[in-house]
Amino acid sequence: MKKYDAIVIGAGHNGLTNAAFLAKAGLSVLLLERNPYIGGATVSREIYPGFKYSNCSYVCSLLRPEIYRDLNLAKYGLQIVPYGGSVTLCENGDFFGNFTDADVARREMQRHSERDAVAAVRFDRDIMRQCKFIRPFLMRTPPDPTSFKPRDIRELIHYGKEYYKLGEEVIYDTIRFYTMSIAEYLDEYFESGVIKAAFAGSGIIGSALGVMSPGTSYVLLHHAMGEVDGSMGAWGFARGGMGAIADAMAAALVDLGGEIRTDAGVEQIIVRNGRAVGVALENGDEHYAQVIVSNLDPKRTFLKIMDEKDLDPSFVEKAKNFKIRGSSGKLNIALDGVPEFPALGKDNELIRGDMHFMDSIERLERAYDDWKNGTWSKDPYVDMLIPTLTDPTMTPEGKHFMSVFVQYVPPKVNGRDWTDADRDAFGQTVLDQIANYSPNFKDLILDVEIRTPREIEAEVGLTEGNIFQGELTMDQLLFNRPFPGYAQYRGPVKGMYMCGSATHPGGGVMAAPGANAAREILMDLKRPNSVPEGWVDD
Q: Hey, which of 318, 342, 528, 538 has its CA 20 to 30 A from 214?
């Protein structure tokens, strides 16, 4: 039986990234995926004939340019097509458009509030300042603040120096920013309810928190720190659907000598004498390697595919207490044409961007109240896009694909498991909401795929359907992600590593966790010269 240098569990984008960099360093790598297709949540599938759905993740901004460059993903056909703007449609028939053109954006904001148009300059400056501060740390391993190892001490000093450079006033603002609710933060800049609602949505996407919950300001920052073609904060579509990212990474991995096996679910990580030595598959096969890497979330990794007897009881308790509450759902819709939105009129460029229907902070918070009460939001927050207006390769000519991301959707309904009837009722709630703003929308529907946390967990393997593999709260960031003492991608037994979004710097189609974990593995294997230039922490 062939023994590999490394086995990576889970062919999501972080697993693919990790495997590709290990293979690039000359290791023999086996990547295992339980589904018959790769990509995890970064996938495109033909659910309806002729239509390619990005049926989980749906936009790209956070993918690190270093990774795109070092894996030469352009060679394998990956193209990120930028799209711009967003719009919030109001119940009174008006709208607020966030245009890409600065002059147009200012005039639109002035239409709602002269004061807010001035405040927006300060708001953008302050958000970009936070982004510029945190971005350099995305590709660095968090220091252990309890360690006296020279590397950890150097990294703590580096963090301190960079923080000190912000200056006293900005340091105070930063501390407040990371702990405030997005509603409170926006109150310090804006007076218009619809403008605040338009910006607040980014503070709750993927989180089990409301706009008035402390810590949601950071979630906004997490969604603002990306870039497309060097434009910070911009968003784009992967041409051909989000699965194009996974396909390009897989092609790079195979070219580098790596091996991918689908329909290969892992039953258990094999541990002998305190060291991970291999994996046992659901079909009974066993494979062995010097290094075992899990791209699964901590609960699936440590509570399902590891034997608790191989773990310290205190560590098992950390895994059980890890916050990974599901709050999101998704509708993927095949359309026979472009829906009309009377508020926008004809040929309005905003239809190509993100579309939302929540026009007040109060409506957003009430949507969260429904989740807390154990049911899906009856007036949900949606992040709706028609990517085929920008990328026509996903559907037949003249047809369109609509992606509808939904907050809030609980992992259980009133404490019980979801039923098909629940799923259909949830889907109808979302369709009805869209139809309130688009009178011809329902007439154009050819197919609807409805995904609750039940479907997301069953198909993608994300516990409770949590899209970040764990909440982005202060107690689960940096050297606390996923657990204190285990934030440097190394697992609780020798030879075992973690590379998923539950590790630093977190979720989204970023690929930084996979790349960072590869760096730590190569350093442990005494192959630091194999790490891409600029990736070794100072």
A: 318
